[in-house]
Design brief:
Strand order of the largest sheet: 5-2-1-6-7
Number of helices: 4
Family: Belongs to the universal stress protein A family.
GO cellular component, one term: cytoplasm
Mean pLDDT: 85
Strand content: 25-35%
Main location: cytoplasm
Order of helices and strands: EHEEEHEHEHE
CATH topology: Rossmann fold
CATH class: Alpha Beta
CATH architecture: 3-Layer(aba) Sandwich
Protein name: Universal stress protein
Keywords: Cytoplasm
Distance between the termini: 22 Å
Helix content: 25-40%
Largest sheet: 5 strands, parallel
Radius of gyration: 15 Å
Length: 149
């Protein structure tokens, strides 16, 4: 297996993202790699009526602040689940999760591997490979690992 120095892990609060974190922790420990734990706060407001939802507008500054605080709390919860002595950095960013996880953040942190859960919190995502995971696999130039629950 290729030796990775930096592994980027996309976390969204879903069961699959917890599985991704566990797998990332195992790999980081075995390779002495650094983890970059990332939660992307989507800046677009999703309005759904039982389906995948429609993007209708950007979130207000107040809404973004609330979502960022929630993301920070979630990351704090995830950090305690890492194996001892694993080096990590926890980051909350605002933007499009697909673009951030496939292009922007791997480049910024010089990640050699991106790990994401197979599906996210969206109900439609649970029936097929999640749209974010599928986008990352198709569009990143970085090695990718998609983890199921």
């Amino acid at each position: 297996m290729k030796h990775y120095k930096t592994i980027l892990v996309g976390l969204d609060g879903s069961a699959n993202s917890l599985s991704a974190l566990e797998k990332a922790g195992e790999l980081a420990r075995s390779m002495d790699a650094k983890l970059v734990l990332v939660t992307v706060v989507d800046h677009k407001l999703q309005v759904g009526f039982g389906g995948p939802g429609l993007e209708v507008n950007t979130l207000s500054a107040e809404q973004l602040e609330i979502k960022q605080e929630q993301a920070q709390k979630m990351l704090a919860h995830y950090q305690v689940k890492l194996p001892e002595k694993v080096k990590y950095q926890a980051v909350v960013v605002i933007g499009d999760p697909k673009e951030m996880l496939s292009e922007i953040l791997p480049k910024k942190y010089q990640a050699e591997l991106v790990i994401v859960g197979a599906t996210g919190l969206n109900k439609l995502d649970r029936f097929i490979l999640g749209s974010t995971a599928a986008y990352v696999v198709r569009n990143t130039k970085t090695d990718t690992l998609v983890v199921n629950e």
